[in-house]
Design a protein that fits this description.
Length: 144
């Protein structure tokens, strides 16, 4: 996912539904990016914080115990999603409104209704493959 989004040291990666934090920790460790993990489960947030310390990237990542719909995404340059298609569709307006032009959105296995991806890749898992989708914010939607 991070490769498809071409993550680098100038990126700020937000993982919505970050769980144990592995995606933002990997972004920091492998690519030197800053990261923010967002999850509603305080136990997972504490586990992610401990994992970041043990991996030596606590200075590059942070974790928020919050609903993804309540987090300001204005500083994100990459947003990582591993939710359902319905969830993706529900957060789409927020992504278009808050993300800066040029920000990338990457989703594991689920796309958005009515927003064709810029790229997708098939990642082999066992005998099958899973799609990873990439979009780029080209402009802000006019909701007026």
């Amino acid at each position: 996912m991070l490769e498809l989004a071409v993550v680098g040291p100038s990126d700020v990666v937000y993982d919505l539904g970050s769980g144990d934090g592995r995606m933002v920790i990997h972004a920091a460790k492998q690519y030197g990016a800053h990261g923010v993990g967002v999850d509603q489960d305080p136990v997972r947030i504490q586990r992610a914080r401990r994992h970041a310390v043990s991996e030596g990237v606590a200075d590059l990542v942070s974790f928020e115990c919050a609903d993804a719909f309540d987090v300001n995404l204005g500083s994100a340059t990459v947003v990582v999603l591993y939710m359902s298609r319905e969830w993706n569709d529900g957060i789409l307006a927020k992504l278009h409104e808050e993300l800066p032009v040029g920000a990338r959105v990457v989703s594991w296995n689920h796309d958005f209704a009515g927003w064709p991806p810029r790229l997708f890749d098939i990642v082999p898992i066992g005998d099958e493959g899973t799609r990873v989708y990439l979009w780029e914010i080209e402009r802000h939607r006019d909701h007026g």
